[in-house]
Amino acid sequence: MAAGNPVAVVTGGGRGIGAGISTALARHGFDAVIGWTSDEDSAVKTAARIGETTSARTLLVRGDVADEQTSKDLAAAALAEFGRLDCWVNNAGYMAAGSILELTGDQVRRCFEINLLGTFYGIQSAAAAMGEAGGRIVNISSEAGIRAWPLYGAYAPSKFAQIGLGQVAALELGRRGITVNTVCPGIIETDMVLDKWAAESAVTQTPVADIRAAVTAETLTGALCTPEDVGDAVAWLASASAGSVTGQSICVNAGVTLH
Ligand code: NAD
C-alpha cells in the first residue's frame, strides 16, 4: 500500500455535483485532483472551501475531457503531486436539450465526446495509473441514462452508453482489483439544470418555479437531491466498505425511478 492519504481525480470537480463529490471525498480523507475546463473561479472556491474545512490537499488541473491528453494529464498530476491514485470520478458532463427534429449533429457529437468518450479516456488513464494496486472508478451518468425523456435525444443516449461502458469496464478490470460503478443522479439544481429550466420555461411559458414544483412532486421524499447526496454515494463507492460492489448503476434520485 502506497504511503499518504488516498488520492482521487474528479473531472469537472470544481462546481455543481462535481464540487459535492470533491468535498465528500475530501471529508473522507482523500486528497483530490480537481479537473476544470471553463469555470476557474468555481474550482478555486471549491478547493479553498475544502482547505478550510478538511485537512485534504487539492490540485487544480485544466483540460477538456474530450481530449485524450486531459485524462493523461490528470493521472500524471495525481502521481507526480501525491504519489498514488486510488479513485477516479468521471463527472464532467454536457447537456444539449431540444427535440430530435431540432438538435444538430454537432450537439449530439459534443454530448458523446464529453459524456462517453471523456469517460472512456478517464477509465483508460485511471486503470493505467492505478496499476497493480487496484482502485475505484465511479462514472456519473444520469436518471436520463436509464429512462427516456423528451428533448434528451442527444444527452440521454450518451448517458445510456456511459452505463454500458461502465459495465464492460467492470467486467474487464475486476480481476485487477478495480471496481467500476455508475451513479445516476436525478434532477439536481445546478447550473446545468437551471439553464435547462430557463430554456424550457421560454418554450412552454411555464414559470421556472412551477417546473421546479412539478419535478419535486415526482420524488418520493418531496425534496430534490443535492450535490452533497451524490458526493456521499460516491464516497461510499470509493471506500473499503464497497469492495464487493462493481458493475452497478445506483440512482440518487429520491426514488423517482424504482428498479
Ligand atoms: P454543471 O454544468 O454544473 O457541471 C459540469 C461540470 O463538468 C463543470 O465543472 C464543467 O466545467 C465540467 N465540464 C463540462 N464540459 C467539460 C469538458 N469538455 N471537459 C472538462 N470538464 C467539463 O453540471 P452538473 O449538474 O454538476 O453535472 C455534473 C454531472 O452530473 C454531469 O455528468 C451531468 O450530466 C450529471 N448529471 C446532472 C444532473 C443534474 O440534475 N444536475 C442529473 C443527472 C446527471
TrEMBL record:
UniProt record similarity statement: Belongs to the short-chain dehydrogenases/reductases (SDR) family.
Source superkingdom: Bacteria
InterPro entries: NAD(P)-bd_dom_sf (IPR036291), SDR_fam (IPR002347)
A family per Pfam: adh_short_C2
GO-annotated molecular function: oxidoreductase activity, acting on the CH-OH group of donors, NAD or NADP as acceptor
Keywords tagged on the record: Oxidoreductase
Signal listed as a keyword: no
CDD domains in UniProt: SDR_c
Record field: transmembrane: none
Identification of the protein by name: 3-oxoacyl-(ACP) reductase
Originating organism: Mycolicibacterium madagascariense
